[in-house]
Amino acid sequence: MSLLHPSPLAWRQADLDVFVAMAGSDYAGFVGAATSGYEAQGPLGENLGVHASVVAAQAAVDGHRVRDTFPVLRRPRPLRMRRSGTHGRVCGPT
């Protein structure tokens, strides 16, 4: 699976008007009926809006997932500082 083209979502019908998206074994969002259309939500409860059809709401969930697949690169932990203010070792004594 590449970061630019993740695997397609698997949609499962959880109730009469609720559809749940799965990406492999991970929860990816859901679509449910609202008073004025179909409400889409992302995996962390992000409101993705109300859409006119189930297909449009599912496309919103899939589009939201593609934007959020890039990992955040950061240092595992900050460098330690010596009393003099210079950088010390990254790990403890060996």
Give the tags.
elongated; 1 helix; alpha+beta; five-stranded antiparallel sheet; 15% helix; 5 strands
What does this structure look like?
It is a single chain. The protein contains one helix and five strands, in the order βββββα. It has one helix spanning 54-67, and strands at 10-15, 18-23, 26-34, 37-41, 47-51. A five-stranded antiparallel beta sheet has the order 1-2-3-4-5, with helices on one face. With 94 residues, the chain is an alpha+beta fold.
User: How much helix is in the residues?
Assistant: 10-25%
Strand composition percent: 25-35%
* Main pleated-sheet profile: 5 strands, antiparallel
Q: State the order of secondary-structure elements, H for helix, E for strand.
A: EEEEEH
Strands side by side in the biggest sheet = 1-2-3-4-5
Counting DSSP H or I runs of 4 or more residues, the number of helices is 1
Average residue pLDDT: 78
Low-confidence stretches: none
Rg from C-alpha positions? 21 Å
SS-based structural class?
alpha+beta
Give the total of beta strands.
5
Global morphology: elongated
Terminal residue distance: 38 Å
